[in-house]
Each structure stands twice: as structure tokens, then as C-alpha cells.
């Protein structure tokens, strides 16, 4: 499976936007980019996913580079409750639409400062 | 719409006892995944099941661990003869079909004393 590289940690001020980068230079054409986050003592929470185009939902935006070798998760206004480990994951899909399970790396620990 | 439900949330077992962790997937989901997170480590895939079938158990330890997802009732992760190294958070996840978004439960924390 293609690997992702994320910074170990990042800090942000409350109420400001946060850009969480992810490099995936060996991504293949059928890999979807998924983002999950894990708050302390909780299970991973789905945030967003995309293939080629930028994606927006109520939680965040996902900006995908044109060559797909990197992506950025954007939290538009960070709150203290956004402090979590953010995981960027490539999910491999087969031609039939089947997909393997998620493989988690070490993620980025986001600290939000009041 | 209830999410993925796991119980118990916390379980304490003595070495040598059995631990049973239960997972009820989200309504309409027939695919279940189990992950383990050891202290200070990342999430590791254990097993993927569909109703009555184990699809992928490549992450399951070869001994003492088993999983099932019967036609009726929750998925069960069973750990026999627990050892201290089994102390971890065990997360269940579900999806409506293979390839769909996977949603996680709150986890079951196992402590072996």
C-alpha cells in the first residue's frame, strides 16, 4: 500500500484556520485519500475523503494537489474541540469497487491554543 | 441513527481469563472491522468480517484471538487466556458495504492485571 507522510505535530490558535499537510508521492490512480481524526480516549472519527477534486463538508475541506502526490486538510476555524490526532490514509480500491481496510500511520497531533 | 456500539467500554481481566468484546454495527451495515491500539501506539487492523464470514484476518494474532459476526446479534472479538500484553483499546468499525466509508465505535478498553 502507498504510504503517507505527515508532520508529527502542529499547533494552531483558536478561531484560526488550520492546514494539515499530507504527502503521498507513491499514490496510485485508484487510491482515495481519507482523513480521520482521533480525540483522546475516543475512536477514530471520519472527517472527509476524496479522489481528485477538492471536497468540502461540514467538518472540513480537502484540497488535493493536481498531481495527487499531496493533499491538505483544512479546518476553517479551529476550536479547542478540534485538538486530536489527524490521520491521512490512502485507501486502495479494486476495479470492482472493493476496498481494503484502512491502514493508520502515526498521524499529526494537532494542538489548539486558546 | 445510532453509531457503532461497543461494550463493555472498560473491561478488567486477570491473566488467564477470557475477554469478550461486543460490537453492534450501525444500522444497515453488514461489514465489521476490528482494530487494536496498544498504549502509545497506532491503530492496527486485526480482522474484517461480513455476516457469518471472515473476509480478512491477516492482522489477527495466530493464537488465543478469534472473531465472529453471526447472522443475528453483534460481532464478538474473543481473547482467550489473556496476558498483560493484550491490554489495549479495541475499536470496532462498520460500513454498509466493502468500499464504503468506515465508521468507528468508541472502543473497548481492556486491562489485564
Please provide a written account of the structure.
Chain A is mainly beta and 114 residues long. Chain A has no helices and nine strands. Chain A has a five-stranded mixed beta sheet, with no helix packed on it. A four-stranded antiparallel beta sheet of chain A has the order 2-7-6-5, with no helix packed on it. In chain A, a hairpin with a 6-residue loop joins strand 3 and strand 4. Chain A is globular. In chain B, the strands form two sheets. In chain B, strands 2, 4, 5, 6, 9, 10 and 11 form a seven-stranded mixed beta sheet that branches. Chain B has a four-stranded antiparallel beta sheet with strand order 1-3-8-7, with no helix packed on it. Chain B is globular, with a radius of gyration of 13 Å. With 113 residues, chain B is an all-beta fold. Chain B contains no helices and eleven strands. The relative contact order of chain B is 0.34. The chains are: A mainly beta (114), B mainly beta (113). The A-B interface holds A 36, 38, 41-46, 49, 93, 97-107 and B 4, 33, 35, 42-45, 48, 56, 91, 93, 98-99, 101-107.
- Give the terminus-to-terminus CA distance of chain A: 38 Å
Helix content of chain B: under 10%
**Count of helical regions of chain B:** 0
| Mean pLDDT over the full residue set of chain A | 92
* Helix percentage range of chain A: under 10%
DSSP E strands of chain B, number: 11
Order of helices and strands of chain A: EEEEEEEEE
Shape of chain B: globular
**Rg of chain A, Cα atoms, Å:** 14 Å
Greatest interface by residues involved? A-B, 21 and 20 residues
Shape of chain A: globular
Low-confidence segments of chain B: none
Rg of chain B over CA atoms, rounded to whole Å, is 13 Å
Amino acid at each position: 500500500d502507498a504510504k503517507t507522510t505527515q508532520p508529527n505535530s502542529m499547533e494552531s490558535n483558536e478561531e484560526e484556520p488550520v492546514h494539515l499537510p499530507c504527502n503521498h508521492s507513491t499514490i496510485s490512480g485508484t487510491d482515495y485519500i481519507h482523513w480521520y481524526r482521533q480525540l483522546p480516549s475516543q475512536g477514530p472519527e471520519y472527517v472527509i475523503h476524496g479522489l481528485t477534486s477538492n471536497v468540502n463538508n461540514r467538518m472540513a475541506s480537502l484540497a488535493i494537489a493536481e498531481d495527487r502526490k499531496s493533499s491538505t486538510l483544512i479546518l476553517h476555524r479551529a476550536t479547542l474541540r478540534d485538538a486530536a490526532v489527524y490521520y491521512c490514509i490512502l485507501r486502495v480500491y479494486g476495479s470492482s469497487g472493493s476496498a481494503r481496510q484502512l491502514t493508520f500511520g502515526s498521524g499529526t497531533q494537532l494542538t489548539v491554543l486558546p | 441513527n445510532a453509531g457503532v456500539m461497543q461494550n463493555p467500554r472498560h473491561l478488567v481481566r486477570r491473566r488467564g481469563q477470557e475477554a469478550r468484546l461486543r460490537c453492534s454495527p450501525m444500522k444497515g451495515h453488514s461489514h465489521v472491522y476490528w482494530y487494536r491500539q496498544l498504549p502509545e501506539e497506532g491503530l492496527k487492523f486485526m480482522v474484517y468480517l461480513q455476516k457469518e464470514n471472515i473476509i480478512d484476518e491477516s492482522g489477527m494474532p495466530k493464537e488465543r484471538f478469534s472473531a465472529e459476526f453471526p447472522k443475528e446479534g453483534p460481532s464478538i472479538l474473543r481473547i482467550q487466556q489473556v496476558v498483560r500484553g493484550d491490554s489495549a483499546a479495541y475499536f470496532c468499525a462498520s460500513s454498509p458495504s466493502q468500499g464504503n466509508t468506515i465508521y468507528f465505535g468508541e472502543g473497548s478498553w481492556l486491562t489485564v492485571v
